[in-house]
Amino acid sequence: MAEFLGIIPARYASTRFPGKPLAMLGDKPMIQWVYERASSLFDHLLVATDDQRIYDVVERFGGLVHMTSPVHSSGTERCAEAALVYEQQTGLGFSHVVNIQGDEPLIQPEQLQTLIDCIQTPGTGIATLIRPLEAKEELENPNVVKVVVDQSFRALYFSRAPIPFVRSSGLDQETANLPFYTHIGLYAFRREVLEQVVTLPPSALEQAESLEQLRWMEHGITIRTAVTQLPSLGVDTPEDLENIRKKLSF
To answer: Is 193 helix (H, G, I), strand (E, B) or coil?
Structure first.
């Protein structure tokens, strides 16, 4: 059995940024940036999309791509379908699947390695990355997902609201002596756990926060986290992409 399959789910119809995977960053589309950075770590890597435009672009730059059903409600479901089809086509079996976000063009192989190391912790079915919050503005930004963890770095809760909430009026993020973490939306799954989570019905907390990982937690599945100090520059809006262009002097 092979070990790790990397999958980059990519859809065209983003509400805040339609066509995001094909947005140009320098002379390459964003999806190519992600693919090339991840390919240094994965022997088996593919893009999973339901859009012919994305499919064609990935083929043109020499990437492996799978056309999925258009009915999936999440990248996780798209990954599960693509993993199954790839295994059937190749005759391979994988012990783990890594969901690599297609909107993280500056993802670093070291971050992916940290995630891979985390999922191999005994008893871990799902692993993800977190990093320390860098500014108060991040804490208050609903587009930045926050997470609180226990002493073993298992996730207790994810939220778009500021968590943990500091009740004492004389304390703030700087003086509370509490860890504040933001979530980086990369996931590694044990193969059988990936198959399990895509069969679970939607949950109330998931729908309230619009965070699919809360569905898994509400059904009793533990998510282990690993801390990375490396910066994360995800792209949710055209403004985010412009900030990355400025950072790279494009």
So the answer is: helix
Place of tokens 């226990």: 150
Residue 115: C-alpha distances to residues 5, 62, 107, 214 (Å): 13, 26, 12, 19
Torsion region of 45: left, alpha or beta (phi above 0 gives left; psi -120 to 50 gives alpha): beta
C-alpha distances out from residue 57 to 17, 28, 185, 197, Å: 18, 10, 24, 30
HSE of 231 in the Cβ direction (CA atoms, 13 Å)? Answer: 7
Could you tell me if 144 and 182 are in contact, meaning their C-beta atoms sit under 8 angstroms apart?
A: yes
pLDDT in tens for each of the 250 residues of the chain?
579 999 999 999 887 888 999 999 999 999 999 999 999 999 999 999 999 999 999 999 999 999 999 999 899 999 999 999 999 999 999 999 999 999 999 999 999 999 999 999 999 999 999 999 988 889 999 989 999 999 999 999 999 999 998 877 555 656 567 889 999 999 999 999 999 999 999 999 999 999 999 999 999 999 999 999 998 888 888 898 898 998 887 6
First vs last Cα of the chain: how many Å apart? Answer: 43
Q: Which of 2, 227, 14 is nearest to 103 (CA)?
A: 14
185 backbone dihedrals φ, ψ, rounded to 5°: -75, 50
pTM for the predicted model, two decimal places: 0.93
d(Cα 198, Cα 187) in Å, to the nearest integer? 14
In one-letter notation, the amino acid at residue 241 is L
